[in-house]
Specification:
Blueprint (H helix, E strand, L loop, with lengths): L9 H10 L3 H24 L4 H4 L4 H10 L1 H18 L11 H14 L3 H22 L15 H32 L3
Length: about 190
């Protein structure tokens, strides 16, 4: 079955090749990806219509950086949070619990799991927990005013199904992108 297939060796070869980079090159790449994640996330507030289509791409730089290195991915995630705090503090509440956390979760899953289903479930779990923290812990209406901030199992189930689908899209897109990177650089 499709979801029980192992990910290919391209991911592992990318990780090994990245470990051979000098530390300066790794840090520069991490900082560039952090800046991109920040710009993508802030596009929703800066560009009126098209920004909402660009904003979900904030997961990609964090995901790529985390696939390269777990520690560098976490550092990029934290740097992106700090950049958002400095540039537009009002946007800070969304990134750490949604797009940034999704990129971090899927990137970490590429390190720990080999099956697509495990990676997909890990990303979905990270995003579900992040949305639930915003919705039920902080009481921030991330899903709009029509969704109650009191705990409801049907809402949690709906959130999980949505995050499962959304994570599946991100896993497949990132897997295709990482295969292209692997072929382009002969890794």
């Amino acid at each position: 079955m499709y979801f029980f297939r192992s990910i290919s060796k391209e991911i592992q070869s990318i990780q090994l090749a990245f470990n051979d980079f000098p530390k300066t090159k790794r840090l520069v790449l991490g900082s560039i990806l952090s800046s991109l994640a920040t710009l993508f996330h802030l596009a929703g507030g800066i560009l009126p219509v098209i920004g909402y289509f660009i904003s979900p791409l904030a997961s990609a730089p964090i995901l790529i950086c985390t696939v390269f290195s777990k520690s560098l991915g976490f550092i990029s995630y934290m740097i992106s949070i700090l950049l958002i705090f400095v540039l537009v503090p009002s946007e800070l509440i969304v990134f750490p619990f949604t797009t940034g956390l999704l990129g971090l979760g899927i990137g970490m899953a590429f390190h720990f799991f080999e099956k697509r289903l495990s990676i997909l479930l890990c990303g979905s779990l990270f995003l579900t927990i992040g949305i639930m923290i915003l919705l039920y812990g902080i009481k921030f209406p991330i899903l709009g005013p029509s969704v109650s901030s009191s705990f409801n199992y049907s809402i949690v189930g709906s959130i999980f199904l949505f995050t499962l689908f959304y994570s599946w899209i991100w896993v497949e897109v990132s897997f295709v992108y990482l295969k292209i990177v692997s072929r382009k650089f002969n890794l």
